Amino acid sequence: MKLYNHISTWAFAGLLAFTGCSQEESLEGSSSLQGFQISVTDAGFQNLSEGRATDENFKTTFVKGDAIGVYAVENGQVVEGVANRKFTMNEKGEWDLEGNPIEYDSERFKNITFYAYYPYQADEESIQFDAAAEDPFASLVSNWQIAADQGGTKYTQSDLMTSSSKAEDGRLQGKVSFTMLHEMALAVLKMPNLVYDFTNGGLDDYSLNVAPKELLINDVKTTPYYDAASGTYMALVKPETNYSISGTYQGAKEMAFSAAGSLAGGKAKMYTINDANKLDYTLNIGDYLCADGNLVSVNDGTVPDNAIGVVCYVGNPEPHVTHPNNYTETNDALYRDYPNCTHGLVLALKNARDGQWDGGAFNSTSSSTRSPAYCDWLASDEEWNGLLVPCNTEANGALKNDPESMFPAFLGYNNTLVMTMCYEGKGPQNSCNNAYTYLMNYRNEVAVPSSVTPWYIPSVVCWNEVAKSSSVINKSISKLGEDKGEELVSVSSGTAKNHYWTSTQRNWATQWTHGIDGGRYTQASNKGSLAGHFRMMLAF
């Protein structure tokens, strides 16, 4: 089960469909057997903010492998054959009934109440289902144990939900609709941001979500569930029971927080932690970007274990900012998709690989097989033409051999987006298939924080900037050790290997490459026959 934060009152979480021993219904319709349906709806947690109810519900949706248990009760007794029946969601979003089918009896079902709970428990004795009680799940709720580790998928295993329902009449005759109610309560932490106040002139503040360094619920160390969509940390607590929350976090300095409360089942309360402190920071080329979004200065003498890249440019890299005469906000893809990435560029620590191979051809098309360049689709695309910049220098005969003048800005993100859209349906895959594989391999291998762009293939101008500071960048990479970083390799003009592929095209057959040497070296290499390195970049 996955957790989502929706602004809505009801949402279908899944549809259970199963069929009994079906026969044609008689005219009387009193005792014949036919198929029936069960729907499952999550009512969500009612979110309380400072005691005021809101319409924001923290909802769940079922995924493959989730299972619920179903009981049927008639006249205070469990109906034979419908006691803790297990339904499991399959890959199609349908629910499979384990064991014998359940037979639908239209007349008898009028007198039956159905009960459902999540998550399914195989040990029926632990459920202590009391068919004669007003709430047959009362013992289950009272004795329910909430795990201290609620991280990831473990959260929903502590999120006890129950429901009761009757079979519907009329047009929906036989349908049983369950509205699942959360029996536990939910404490939600909204952590403050860590704000880097750059001492460099002209740089906006850089903000990061802060995670609890330590979280205690009733003095028990607890791992909360992190909801990326809302940026909150969630922990289930026992209902109608006093609880205490305490913990620490690392902001501009180490801080502590605490709260206490009591909530009814199905209620959630948001605890917002405010911190006005900012971290004074001077951003330099050679600084490390870490997996959690934090920055570590090259001057600190500290080499972070979780570094994912090295700062290679300081300043707003958005094309409409660096070259306002050439680009606008409309065709600036970096600005449009990541408007807050205004602080600089970061180079990856290692080359991307295709399996064991470090480097290869840009695509699989031979020099004798002509195929469109991967930006050609833009010219005739009514939706995207004008929103992205073509990345083929052949379009201008006067500048076809001058990629820096033709495309003077940092267009790596733009070019990579054009390329991936081509591969994913806009154009021929063989124009960029190898590059796409290397790109996706690296994106899957090295995760990035939410404060940055995805990894992309640098443009010629991006590589020029790296080349200017290659010695500083290599010094920072070398401190990480060979297992974590690969220093940049410089090659001379005319060398047909060990160059770095750019995302700037020369024409359908060749791609601009960079050799680092001299700071501005580029040459056009055949995309399908010459091997080069793929080194990724991102903006933050």
TrEMBL record:
It holds the Pfam family Mfa_like_1. CDD domains: BF2867_like_N. It comes from the Bacteria. This is Fimbrillin family protein. It comes from Phocaeicola plebeius. The lineage of its organism: Bacteria, Pseudomonadati, Bacteroidota, Bacteroidia, Bacteroidales.
